[in-house]
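Supplementary notes for students who missed Thursday's class. We covered one full example, reproduced here. Read the sequence, then the structure, then the short commentary at the end.
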Amino acid sequence: MLIIREDLDKLGRMTDEERFANIPMMLKWVDSLIESGNYIKGEPLLIKGRYVSREQILSDGPFIEAREGISGYEIIRAENIEQAAAIAQTCPLVQQGLAVREVRPIATIYGVNNE
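Structure (token representation):
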């Protein structure tokens, strides 16, 4: 899984038009991943969210005290974490320094995921 991390303060100040201006470039990148057989799915996340703990529910963002937060995800197919990281590095937003991708393997829990 590629976890998209961006500056939440900056995203919160952007209009929807500004935030989604990079969609054509990103769709081109996703198309290249589809063609290579590496793309499974992905979506942007809305900025609004809830931060839930045992004591409280806060509603002013996905990470209340963090400057950077998760703004989306992609699930890709890769041979190993090194290949996944190399794929993540080709993302146009990463190349332009507008976002980073955290690369994390998805764990398979036998008996839970129909394995």
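Commentary. The radius of gyration is 16 Å. The mean pLDDT is 85. If anything here is unclear, bring it to office hours.
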